[in-house]
Specification:
This protein has 214 residues and is an alpha+beta fold. It has one domain. It has 7 helices and 6 strands. The protein has helices at 3-19, 64-68, 74-90, 97-111, 116-129, 140-152, 170-176, and strands at residues 24-30, 36-43, 51-54, 59-62, 183-188, 200-205. The strands form 2 sheets. The chain has a 4-stranded mixed sheet, covered by helices on one side. The radius of gyration is 16 Å and the shape is globular. 31% of the residues are buried. The protein binds zinc ion (ZN). The site of zinc ion has 4 residues, from helix 3 and helix 4. Zinc ion binds next to helix 3 and helix 4.
Length: 214
């Protein structure tokens, strides 16, 4: 899996975002009780933040064009979406809600089989992209620490065989993935080492209006 292919895919995503203002993705994470939960992700190009959890509606809002300008790794994007999913699950308005969401995001990536090498990439991106923090967000270094706490809170276990990309190419598997959506894009990162599960980021791009809750 080449980096070039990854960049190309992100470029396509950026173009697609520009072409159809309303991009609809979704993210599925292991919820607080261990069951998988899925949240819709909406593109809001004009938004002030990069990403935001809409607690009232149970949706995640992302300013994709703004996010892409930072050239984030796919690992960071996954972490960011998991962070927002954490907000939706916690439904928390307390002062430490950001810390809890960071912890949840780190925990999620561990459960999903992200390796320590992936986390090194995440750390690099966090330090590069996140600033000194604000009234609710801790400085980047602190957020890295909390994220890793969440990551390390889950004991390691064998990687999931279903994500082993040896049998078919990720792109083919993506294309054959059952979906009611009109457009589906998959982004895969490189596998960290032979035999380890690939990290998967599935972006569902939906240009049809009204196809919600998919
Ligand atoms: Zn947050």
């Amino acid at each position: 899996m080449s980096v070039r292919k990854l960049i190309l895919t992100f470029s396509l995503l950026a173009l697609a975002a520009a072409a159809w203002g309303q991009r609809v993705n979704s993210i599925t994470v292991p919820g607080l009780d261990g069951r998988q939960v899925t949240f819709p992700v909406y593109s809001v190009p004009g938004m002030n933040n990069i990403a935001k959890a809409d607690l009232a509606n149970g949706t995640i809002l992302v300013n994709w064009p703004r996010l892409m300008r930072y050239q984030p790794s796919s690992q960071l994007i996954r972490l960011m979406l998991a962070h927002e999913a954490g907000h939706l699950l916690h439904q928390d308005l307390s002062a430490d809600r950001e810390d809890r969401a960071d912890y949840f995001a780190g925990r999620t990536l561990r459960i999903e089989g992200y390796t320590s090498r992936d986390m090194a990439i995440v750390r690099e991106d966090m330090l590069r992209i996140l600033g000194r923090g604000d009234s609710t967000h801790a400085p980047a270094e602190e957020r890295v620490r909390i994220t890793m706490q969440g990551y390390n809170s889950v004991p390691s276990r064998p990687t999931r065989q279903t994500w082993n990309a040896s049998s078919s190419s990720p792109v083919n598997r993506c294309a054959s993935h059952p979906s009611h959506l009109t457009k589906t894009f998959c982004v895969f990162t490189t596998r960290s080492s032979g035999g380890t599960a690939s990290i998967r980021l599935l972006f569902l791009l939906n240009q049809a209006i009204g196809m919600r809750g998919g």
